[in-house]
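Example A, followed by Example B.
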Amino acid sequence: MTTPSGSIFHATDRGSPARSALVSPSSPSALVIHNDEELPEEILECLGEDPSKLPVTHITVPSSVVTRWTHVMFNGLPKEDKDGGFKPPLLNTEVEAILPTTSVKKDRDQVASQTQMLASLGAHSEALKLIASCTTELPEPFKKQLGKLLSDSANLISDLVFTTSQTRRHLLFPLLSKQVKELTLKVPPREFLFGANMADELRTAKSAERLAKDLKAPCSTSQNQHRFSKSEGGCFKPKEPDSSTESRTEVNRALLSENVQKVVQTNPSTGRFPYVDGRDCLRKAYQQRGLPEEAIDTMIRSISHTTLRQYQTTYKLWWDYCTQTNTDYFNATPHQVIQFLQQLLVTKSHNYGTFNSHRSALSLLLSGNIGNDSDLKRYLKGIMRLRPTKPKYSTTWDPAPVVKYLQALFPYDRLSLETLTSKVVTLLALISAHRVQTLSLIQLSNIQISESGITIKITEPTKTSLRTGIYPVMKYKYFTAQPESCIVLAIQAYINRTEELRNSEDFLFITTKKPFKKASTNTISRWIKNTLHEAGVDTSVFSGHSTRHAATSAAVRKGISVEIIRQNVGWTATSRVFETFYNRPLSTGDNICNAILS
């Protein structure tokens, strides 16, 4: 017998020497054991009880049960017997979206094991109910003992389910950020593995982190360095505040006191006065101009959520600039706005479109007609020459290979929900040339399918509908010659597949994983981009929105008039958007070479 260290044990009778043949100078150190050597009782007590003398509990299992259990161990249970009604924690959709396929598969295998554990809990529950409802004369001690054994067994299984959930989380933690790990460690796994409100809690944590940075003093020397000046000795001393500036600052602080008070309560740090949400800043600006409260709500509703999200960046940059320069946040002059834009021109690499967006955002916020100031207009023309806006794409891709790839995804009953969804959205994006936003607004209640084809009406406001008054209507006939390319059949198959998943959701496109809900524009764009990648399009250059460029450019190459294209995609008759931004040549540069050599 060899120990982990390599020593050799030799068992001998007392008084008889160990055989020296087993111990040579080249052998490892040898330990000789005397079987009849007795140790004092006090030492034996320190060593504990002899395990070989402890009573062994024998569990007797009938042979008929052994054969049945052995069969299950070797062959497994039928699928319908593995589901007992209880559900293990689901993997959060946000986490699953960023995981590699192998990690998702491993987690699903563990979910299957947990489901089977929980099925056994269902059996335990039924057994306990039978004991409780038993009308025959069973001894009370027997019923109690049986119930306790079942309860103990159920507790062991429940703890195993919990341990497996913790293991699932710890296996995925290395793939997540440190902030997500710290946030989810405090949340026990229940319906979802990382908590039901993971996305909201993460956004709240990030928002609090940003606010904390705003509240934190930029250095230990001063809390607001711009309010201090250097003395002769090199130290900072408070500036003498200008009376007009101080009064304006106090007015602005009073206007934002409610929101700032909330921020300070949740982030009790000291430091620079923090930035408040852009929507609230607009509200306070309108209040300062004396507008009635009910009118302010209507005015803010005129700004779309996407536009306001874009303006948020401007308002934050403007807040920082005003704080550094003691500029009135709500009543700045056009020259102060020019100075702000010049600072961005020097420190940022943005083009003219970004600066024009800054101008539009500040026109809403500041009093006076800032947007029409002649000096500001001249300044922006200079930026337009220095940094002109360039189209996102100088070329586009050929839709033909993508269409061929989509045709191969047929018949529909053999496709997974993810694949079917990706085909429908990509095919519809190509043949309609509409924006992803428009596709996300399609509702089942506005779809009419007849013997001749399908009609889809968009009744929700789109990017251009409020300005042009045109709400898109898509009409397509059955393409019986190529059913694999027929959008009518594809949409019908998608509606039938998702009928039992969508509950009361009326929007056509829903997420492919639980909880099934309306798919956002970002999700639909990701589906399209992934499909383009699978079809061979260079998605490091082209996004999901590029289907609009590819489809309209291909239509012109096929001889479709620009007027028809404008009508189809919702551009006005005089619009130059297509010619300026969408009509692009193919991205292949060797067409002539191929034509000559082929």
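Example B, a separate protein, is given below in the same form.
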Amino acid sequence: MRNCKIHRINLKNQRTRRVLIIFVVIAALLILSYVDLDDKAPQSRLSHKQITDPNISFRRWNNTHKFLIDTPSCKIPEVDPFGDETSGLYEPEEYSQCSSRAPLSYIRKDGDHITLTINQSLLSSYSSVKIFCCYARVLRVVKTRRPDDGVSLTECIPFGDNVSVLAPAVFVSCDNRFQVNVYKNVHAIITPRLVKKERKDPTPSAFSVLLVGIDSISKASLERAMPQTFDFLEKNDFVNLKGYSKIGLNTLPNLMGILGGTDMQQMRNHCDPNDNIDGCYNIWKVFREKGYVTAYGEDSTGIASFNCCGKKGFRSPPTDFYFRPYMMMAERIGVVKRHGMSFCAGPETEGERIMDLAKDFQRTFQNRPKFGLFWMNSFSHDNLNMPTAMDAKVKDFLGEISQHLDNTIFFFFSDHGIRFGDIRTTHAGWLGERLPFFYIHLPDSFKQQHRKAYKNLQINSKRLTSAFDIYMTLQDVLFFADKTHSINQSLGCPQCHSLFSEISHNRSCEQAAIPPEWCVCNVTSYVNLEDELKTKAALVFVDEINKLVERYKQGYKCYRYRLGDIIFAGVTQFDSILLRVKTNPEAKFEGSFRLATNGSMSQLHLLNVTRIDSYAANSWCIESSALDMFCYCKQNSIDWIKLTVCKYLKC
């Protein structure tokens, strides 16, 4: 009897489900009869005739008399980090631990002997019953389509209090006697035993190079969001490159300007950064050839500089110590996100893992020439305020590593300021995106041996500089290590030279190979356009964006934009127009134009266009990294119905 009752209930449930499915489909079709999702973008109530007033705070900035650098060919205005224009956008974030308990395992070094050790004093905090632990080596697995994204583990081997290990990274897992997992972690191992010996011995007095970067932090944001870090840098003999400007849109062009001395087009002429970045020139290869030990580590592996946005990354490890497999395994343990960013990877923050790697690398090879690049995205890339949560940690890192910088030239920097968010609708945000922070610390031994070079660096700190100058500076470091080294001139900037040689007082953006769209020299005033003119300019701008999208093979997947709102429009004293617009579907774009000689709005020359709001959620249908910033993906009606039904059925 009970089975029959259950059968009737099941039949009733099935009929109810079918009725609901039919209802959902009918409702969807009714909606689609009024809205053609294939051809029409979502509408907002704004039209191109509804124009906002120009930004008032922008006009206040016009009257500033303070400059970061003030030379005949380049005056760069100084942004007040605490000004009214951006004050409401900064809200301090608190640091949060990834685990309430200290890590149960750690790596102990005794000379060349490496031991994976369990901290016996912490066992009771993890379990009231006996714990059993095992370890496995982390392996890099090269796959055909994504050669840099594979990682696996060997068999997990049980061990007691400690065990000798020798591998680039080891994974640890501990269960209690009831087979409940109580702990997981992964450790990188940095030891001379993992360095291949078939290379020349460098000059013992050669200067080491350490580059540590934090993504998306401008000079002003560093002072505002990371005051402890800023204060440490200013008080501890770091040289502040006040005129340092970005040369490209995002991380890769600005980083490869330093590492390769080329712009992106020149880079593509010699290699394919999307498919085979191994073939691209990178100065760390030259340092390795000179006998240097090399290392590269970066957090947030999904958006890593050489891997994100369709790039396949490296087929072979590019440096002696390549920490991507270690970081990928740490993220597999479990990620905790803050503001959409992977803040925690296992029981430790991603940023602290990278800083610990830099410290370990620096200490391990204290007396040997080395080249290391360590990059952090996890607490800065997507949010203006998240760096405040890591300010004390970064300051402590700088204090600790400063004790181990003998014979090391230390570069601490960013690639650009934050590229999207509310701050990018302000002029302070426009300037900040183009003006990343950049500091250099020289060891006392360098200052004594190269007094003139040190003096020139101090002079150049108040001149216009770019990534290509840093590349040429690294060429000088190679020459100091090997007097037979032939200086490889930057292709991206034939006129650039090392910061150890004095830069011309009259240097312009063109001479520093800073493209016009990123140049902030002498942009000291804007004349607001009349409503009719700025509407015409904005309509031309949106039309240019649509034409840009249509040039791509996948452009058919994207909506056509229509002008919604003009956020700002102005003309500089150099006859260029700066525009910020909001479109339908909703996106925010910024662009600059050069006016035709006759002043005709129909003959504007587009210098650049960039998206200034987050776009990852709207570009899901695009595989091209060049298009994703501009594409707002269409919603296919059939797919929409399937997704709606599946959401109900949880299929």
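On Example B: The chain has 18 helices and 27 strands.
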